[in-house]
Amino acid sequence: MPTLTINGDTHQVDVPEDMPLLWVLRDVLGMTGTKYGCGIAQCGACTVHLDGNAVRSCVLPVGGVEGKRIETIEAMENSELGRSVQSAWLEHEVVQCGYCQSGQIMSAVALLSKTPQPDDKEIDLGMSGNLCRCCTYTRIRGAIKSVAKA
Amino acid sequence: MSTARRFSLVTGLLGCFAPFMLAAQETQTDQQAQIERGEYLAKAADCLACHVTEDGEPYAGGVEFKLPFGSLYSPNITPDEETGIGTWSDEDFVNAMQKGVGKGGKHYYPAFPYTSYTLMSREEILAIKAYLFSLEPVHQPNRENDISFPFNQRWGMTFWNWLFLDDERFQPNPERSEEWNRGAYLVQGPGHCGECHTPRNLFQAKDASKELAGTTIQGWRAWNITSDEESGIGAWPDEALASYLSKGHAKGYGLAGGPMAEAVNHSLRYLTDEDIQAIVTYLKDVPPQDSDVTRPPEKTLADEVPTDNPHPLGLKVFADACVSCHRWDGDGRQTPHAALSGLRTVNDPEGLNLVRILIEGGKLHTGNTGNTGDSAASMPSFIEGYSNEEIASVSNFVLSHFGHVEGQLEAETIDERLGE
Amino acid sequence: MSKDDSKLESPERRELIKVSGLALGGLLIATCLPPVIHKSAATQIVEEGASGDSPAGPAELGAFIRIDPTGGVTLIMPKIEMGQGVQSSLAAMLAEELEVDLSQVTLQEAPPNEELYVDPILNFQATGGSTSARSFWRPLREAGATGRILLVQAAADEWGISSEVCEARNGAVHGPDGQQLGYGELVEAAAELPVPEQIPLKSPDQFRLIGKPLQRLDTPPKVNGSAKFTTDLQLTDMKIATTRTCPVLGGTLASVDDREARRIPGVREIIPLKDAVAVIGDHTWAAIQGARALKVEWNFGDNARLSSEQIEQALRDAADRDGALATDEGDIDAALDGVDTQIEAEYEMPFLAHAALEPMSCVAQVRVDACELWVGTQVPVMAQQAAAKVSGLPPEKVIVNNQLIGGAFGRRLEVDFIAQAVDIARNVFYPVKLIWTREEDTTHDLYRPHYLDRFRAGLDGNGLPVGWSHTIVGGSVMARFSPQALGENGLDPDAIEISAKPIYHLPNLRVRYVPEDPVALRVSWWRGVGQLHGAYVVEGFIDELAIAAEQDPVDYRLRLLQDQPRAQAVLRLAAEKAGWGQTLPDGHGRGVAVHQVFGSYLATVVELATTPQGGLRINRLICAVDCGLALNPTSVRSQIEGGTLFGLSAALFNEVTVKDGHVQQSNFHDYRQIRISDAPPVEVHLIDSQETPGGIGEAGTALIAPALVNALYAATGKRIRRLPLSRAGYHVLAREA
Ligand code: FES
Ligand code: FES
User: Fold this and answer.
1) How near does any CA of chain B get to the CA of A41, in Å?
2) Which of A19, A59, A121 to probe the B interface (max B CBs under 10 A)?
3) How many CB atoms are located within 10 Å of the residue C344 CB?
4) pLDDT digit string (tens) for B319-372?
5) Helix ranges, B251-402 (H)
6) Is the model's pLDDT at C322 over the cut of 60?
7) Best substitution site from A42, A60, A100 to test ligand 1's pocket, by max atoms within 8 Å of Cβ?
8) Which of the residues in chain B have pLDDT under 50?
9) What was the ipTM of the complex prediction?
């Protein structure tokens, strides 16, 4: 029975070890901010942080993440960087349908925490794992830059 | 008649003939034991890989083998009397496995690895037969081979066999340990490793002087698996080799793709730890042979976008589609299967297996629990969504970033590989 | 998919505002849209709304706006939010005239009710076709104004003064001496007052909300993960299902071996359906694993041998049939007779999947006496009917709770997945959430039709067109979706959009449409549909004419747009912003496209660089827009940006193909989508306009592909007529730092 540390809380979950973290979060723990889009690490909708790194939870077997620090979109408002990314997202009216945006924000926070002043190219390379079918890319770039400047 | 049905017939009679009971039970246990042994051996011999199509019934055959001179199709080996081997006698079956001659005297092409299976004893072969005969018969007519002259002249095989088939059983080497001998038997006999890993001569026979030195097959590189430290597996820790064989991957050393992934999926992952260890012991002792591609010496990479890579398009494609699983440091983000560092695949200037896996994708079953669900270790094929130029460039990027070689792949190279 | 906007000005509309008190207290303002089909709508609103507790459940929300005794304003939202910002725009129209703050408005999704919520342009209750702003522009403002007038009057009566000296502000009425009464305190009295004769509306310079950049109402929960889409819903005792549907359209289930699947922990039920097998699990993972472990045999049926080549051949063959005449002006044969410069071209556009990021999903519960759905749908009434049909219940026993949609692009105008969810749910007693895997979603879509277009035109001595003949061949979406809307000879009004009436001055115009439905695929609406297709081929071919006439593509278009001042204006603006005419290095090029789309005018210019290996880099992408009065400029911009890149994605990469009746693409590795690294910045320039608001959700999508191929021609001299560009080996280069 894997023990997980998610957003600072400990959870014991009775699930098979090969079950991807995504479904544990969504269906077992009821944290549905993390989304399913492809299941093969191609869209980024399921992005969470594992020890501070952006990872795709749809292909991350839960058995392998015990003892690691997991953070999800639900906890982004607890950190200063998370909050400023979220408010930049609102200020720049990034969101359209919103389905990809949890993942986008998780990737943006991970990018900014490693590269606080990314240029266009760094933003592109850091964020290109996250698809947005509404194609809000122009605004994502703008929002990330505004956080970088602040 | 399937074993299950035979059993029920026997049990039905038991009430009346109590004295039979013990004997019958013994027969049952013997039979059951023989079938179980046969099943294990059939797995060790990887029969299924060649006798099942993607959506087909197990052992019903129909798999196409593209050879330079045409196509062969594996036959139905379920106990169906009409289309399978249901009418075969023990003798027929043993002859096929040891001599490459099927019922009715038909010679097989050595795509069927009887030159390896011949090392198995009659008793073992009959255990495999018992197992196959315990399965449900599948009615599926065999596909005719599609071979051009003169290769379609099966009698030619008699001559070939005379030259290249040693119709002999495995002889243990008394100077070596039991474990070593078990390993040698598994590698040379049922495992038929040399069929892929030993280069072939002009006559399509294994070149004994280059045993297990590696070659290409179906567009994939079957690596050098001799004990050579640089280009073979000599420097691999035993645990790494054991993990590679039984799980298809050993982080920092190897990841099975293509035909080798199939060998793991259908065969190797079912072997006991002892047998895997035996294979390790034997392979580590196979005389070293050197070959072109070596394992990349360790490289310290950061999990950051590289700034000095000469393949901007490849770098972009890697960022778009690959980095989510593989990471910039090649460490494998989600699962150790995605680790790229240390693989010969990323140090092969021709990028043979690299391009292959991009074209075909890959899937490894990670456990032997019988869970047929999708395992974490799969990679989709990227050829449909990406241009040849992009595939070539991302390959060049991978080779220079994770390996120590400069790939020279171009869009045309990918075109050629697609034709293979 | 549009009808004449003038319907909105129908004089009978004034009678359609009804006001009444609610049984539970409060004021109800029902503003019904012009009842194009159902004349009795207004009466019904009042009846049902007044009782406030109509028995059927869904109808209890029988009105658009309610103001309750606490002053809360509820807007029953006839349009579903799927990223276009529609709910906020509509709320702003109401709040503007009602004089409340946007944040005071609560939105509630409308239940299915064709009578109440019909879209007057579309003629049924739906979200789509970029009609929302156009349909609700007047009615919602009038409803707000009605409420305000009544509330002010009620306050004035209370204070015994003239309403002239009172003012409504921020949800309260203020008197001249500092008196103040909140709306909640006034609703009862207001409900007794007669509907005002005159409902004056604000002039644009008085707007506080409309035309100003506004923070959308739906976005805060979408940046912290709390917004719930259909896939996120969790009901008590709910379980999760996924399906494997026969990979060949029209095939049926022959048999299924579920022994392996049942062994997977968490798998609860395996339910064979006519053309699918459903696996229900405790969690999605169990359901997915179970579905993968099923060994299924199908009867593939007649389509099992079908391939893309055959479908395309059928289109080619059909092109020689007569089809239906959409336009026949002048005498094309005579006009082209003996003309020296004649140009012919054949264009092709592929089948496209929607690939919304939220895969198809629907929660359904079927009880003996009722069925309840929780699903994001663009067509609640159709959802209700589909569920009724499958469950055998009467439609009024089907409750539809509409949900936020994670991108639809037309996909949720279809109800196939809803019917499937109900089909599964009727086998169990608990609610079931059906989620398709991405693979199922891609392979069981209803696709944008594959079109084949043939052109022939002749030019006079000045290079101007003297005749233009255009044959369109493709599947008819209308024929499947609403056959009653088809014209004579199967003329599909959607398939001929733009093509039948190009904005250019084209004498001797003949346009034919030959319907040819693909057998192995169903076709449906896809963001932009008909207009997207029309804009691509017309704008591509007009560019070819300009080149043949050796004239600048912008000048040439301007010449043919004599009576189109709005089109001219956007074209000029885009060209100017793009630096049109300035020389570019070798291998670089600019391309342009302009048209009227969904009631708005748009011009797009692409500037790109190419390499001999097929690499391309879009350096600039400029859009000039006249969408009439921009309700929310920020939303307009973001819709144009997103829509343009959405169209770019398809133009670059997308094509659905079929082999042995199976759709070949399955997920984002082989049905690739544009990423941030492929996406150039989009420069949007708005023209200040007071015209009636036009649609913007699909406009950008329609114009990018022609601008792109025109730019490629300028850069390389190669004319791409068949999309996507990846077919021709093009790929996107990394952006320069
Ligand atoms: S759902 Fe995980 S990357 Fe798409
Ligand atoms: S906002 Fe809709 S997918 Fe990104």
Assistant:
1) 6
2) A59
3) 11
4) 999 999 999 998 886 677 888 989 999 999 999 999 999 999 988 876 544 443
5) 258-266, 273-283, 312-317, 323-326, 352-360, 388-402
6) yes
7) A42
8) 1-19, 368-374
9) 0.89
Distance CA B177, CA B183 (A): 10
Measured in angstroms, how far is the CA atom of residue B126 from the centroid of ligand 1? 49
**In the predicted model, is pLDDT for residue C303 greater than 70?**
yes
- Binding partners of B (≥3 Cβ pairs within 8 A): A, C
Nearest to C201 by CA among C151, C143, C250: C143
pLDDT of residue B1: 37
How far apart are the C-alpha atoms of C127 and C140, rounded to whole Å? 16
Residue B144 CA to residue B166 CA, distance in Å, equals 28
Neighbours of chain A (3+ CB pairs under 8 A): B, C
Number of other residues whose CB lies within 10 A of the CB of residue B186: 23
DSSP run (H or E) holding A108: helix A101-114
CATH architecture entry for A75-149:
Orthogonal Bundle (1.10)
Do residue A15 and residue C283 have CB atoms under 8 angstroms apart? yes
So what's the pLDDT on residue B72?
Answer: 85
The H or E element containing residue C718 is none
Chain A residue numbers with beta carbons less than 8 Å from the beta carbon of B380 are: 40, 42
Residue owning tokens 């991957």: B249
Chain CA centroid to CA C287, Å: 31
Tell me if chain B has a CB within 8 Å of the CB of C289. yes
Chain C contact present for B67, CB below 8 A: no
Percent of chain B exceeding pLDDT 90 equals: 59
pLDDT at C39: 23
Under a CB-based contact definition with an 8 Å cutoff, are residues C217 and C88 in contact?
yes
C-contacting residues of B 344-403, CB under 8 Å? Answer: 370-374, 380-382, 384-390
Q: Give the CATH number of domain A3-72.
A: 3.10.20.30
**Among C648, C633, C638, which Cα is nearest to C703's?**
C648
Phi, psi dihedrals of residue C515, rounded to the nearest 5°: -70, 135
> Which chains pack against C, by 3+ Cβ pairs within 8 A?
A, B
B168: CB partners within 8 A, 6+ apart: B118, B119
Q: What CA–CA distance (Å, rounded) separates C713 from C545? A: 13
Structural domains in chain C plus CATH codes: 3-221 (3.30.365.10), 230-301+360-435 (3.30.365.10), 309-351+447-732 (3.30.365.10)
Rounded to a whole number of angstroms, the distance from the CA of B392 to the nearest CA of chain A is 19
Ligand nearest to C-alpha A100 = 2
Q: Is the pLDDT confidence value at C662 over 70? A: yes
Q: How many angstroms is it from C643 CA to the middle of ligand 2? A: 12
The bound ligand whose nearest atom lies closest to the alpha carbon of A20 is 1
**CB distance from A25 to chain C under 8 Å?**
no
Pick the ligand that lies closest to the CA of residue A35: 1
Q: Is the peptide bond before B150 cis (omega within 30 degrees of 0)?
A: yes
Structure tokens at C424: 């599964």
Q: What is the pLDDT of residue C35?
A: 30
pLDDT of residue C7: 34
Phi, psi (rounded to 5 degrees) for C615: -75, 140
Separation CA B9–CA B20 (nearest Å): 13
Quote the mean pLDDT of chain C: 88
Residue with tokens 């999926």: B265
Mean pLDDT within A116-140: 96
| C-alpha of residue C668 to centroid of ligand 1, in Å | 10
Chain B nearest-CA distance from A122, in A, is 8
What is the position in ligand 2's atom list of the atom closest to the CA of A95? 1
Query: In b/e form, how buried is each residue of B258-296, taking b as 16+ CB within 10 angstroms?
Result: bbbbbbbbbbbbbbeeebbbbbbbbbbebeebebebbbb
Checking DSSP bridges between strand C451-459 and strand C276-281, what pairing results, if any? Answer: unpaired
